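<instruction>
Derive structure tokens from the sequence
<data>
Labelled lines for chain and fold:
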Amino acid sequence: MTQLRTIVAGASGRMGVANVRAVAAHPDLVLVGALDRSGAPAFGKDAGLVAGIDELGVAITDDAPALLAQADVIIDFTAPAASVSIAQQAAARGLVHIIGTTGCTDEDEAAIAAAAKAGARIVKSGNFSPGMVALAVLVEKAAAALADYDVEILEMHHNLKVDAPSGTALMLGEAAAKGRNISLKDNSVRVRDGHTGARETGTIGFATLRGGNVIGDHMVILAGQSERIELTHRAQDRTIYANGAVKAALWAQRQAAGLYSMADVLGLND
């Protein structure tokens, strides 16, 4: 097949360098652009060298319109405002847009959904690890089967992560809520402090930890009166997310315009 011309947004960030390496390593993709903000330390440098691999002849720039004009795919693990802007530009050109950005508001999500309806092929996920996506399916089924068990979600990430709870924790919370046919927004507890009283039945609790260089640890606890089930995922290398993003890009290239999830990519929604 013809190589998919690919851009990596946030190319000098933690996930950006992993995505650059994954794109460069895949025979069906070719890196044609690398985006980052003009003040980024690696701005103007070769994306391959920044990612710790051979020089690729692609300098990191902030000129999104120019790069999008020559691309098929953009892999985007950046910030909500940037992802919304990129989605709108991707829609105008009918591009594949892979979004791993977390911390989006309801308004951001609506704008991304609108871009998908307008012509972009978007795969958006709080986590691109196949194992984590499979775990979310198990959480949904377990929450439905154990309807009277309390659900608590614990997550830990590195000390530079800026949003909480993590997008993955929220994805797991949504899975549990779906299993119980309730709204996560109306039934989640994000903070407990002081004299909180007894736990409210039916809620889904979140606990957030930050420290060191932890890539991503998540645990879903279903606590009953006489037993406790713990479903755990620990990421050991960001490569798993980058390879998942590449898999999503190759899959989305064959789809009609629309908004998809990593579960769609893996065939778990069939």
